[in-house]
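Exam revision sheet. Question 4 asks you to relate a sequence to its structure. Input first:
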Amino acid sequence: MFRVIAAGSVVVETSEFEAHPGETMMTMYHLDGDRMMLTHYCVARNQPRLQAVSVDSGVKRVIFTFRDGTNLPSRDQGHMDQVVYDFLDEDHFSSRWSFYKNGREDWMEEIHFERIR
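Answer key, structure tokens:
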């Protein structure tokens, strides 16, 4: 579920997935000056902040990569490290989240979204 808060300055994504029964995660998207940022509130009990590093000219793909985070004493502690959004049309998009641990990508999760009108 997506909603806009704080006078239109933040988009909030609330997610509940079968991979994490009984758990809810939240991702907040906002501008920081001219940078597009996200903070992901994860079941890993940390809060990585990712920055958009690539937006193609047609805004069909947006790539966010790790900038920093809270509850992360080391980057090698498991955390969401990158997400790639592919916008297929006005009603469909997907995200591919990469989980980084011990110096490498540990696993990837792909999520497909469809707007319900």
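Marking note for examiners. Strands lie at 2-5, 10-15, 25-32, 35-41, 47-55, 61-70, 79-89, 92-101, 104-114.
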